[in-house]
Amino acid sequence: SVDINVGETLFYLTDLQLQEPILSGIPLQNLSLKTKGDYREGIAKGQYDFQFSSPLEGRIEQSGTYQVATDFIRINTSELNLISNYRTLTLEESFELRYQDDSLHVDTLRISSGDGAFMEVGVPSISADEQRGFVEVNDLNIAAIQNSLWGETYFEGMLSGKFNIDRQGTNLQATGEVLLSEIYFEGADFDS
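Predicted structure:
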């Protein structure tokens, strides 16, 4: 549903519910997006709540604020939860995504469970000339993520490790080490 109130300032409220959407041929879980805000002097500002949910297991919840104009986008995330039957990972500190002057920046985001499991992602810079980013995870249950996004598990396992990428011009440096343990795939157990 969409509600719009027009005056000197345009106020809006949207509630979008998609049941089992398909994106580029990939079936996704139920998606919910709610937003409310206002538009004036070329800038849209507001709040959002976003959720992927699986009827079987898990969901991803995200909420925060945003500002969108013709020359920039800012999205501040104040809540991010990866919830499964196994454990819940919760955002430790809010982070911001900024797009301006053909460059994307994402502050470091860290979600953790309190029992040692965490995921940390940062994208200091992405532009035509430079790409820098990193991912670090510890005891991340990848079955829970697959269920939250696609509603099914292709394989199970616990992921730990880190990966960094830094490209400036024609110079590329990528480093990483990843450990996938407690692997289960179609009735067979593996360990790395």
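Summary: Helices lie at 142-150.
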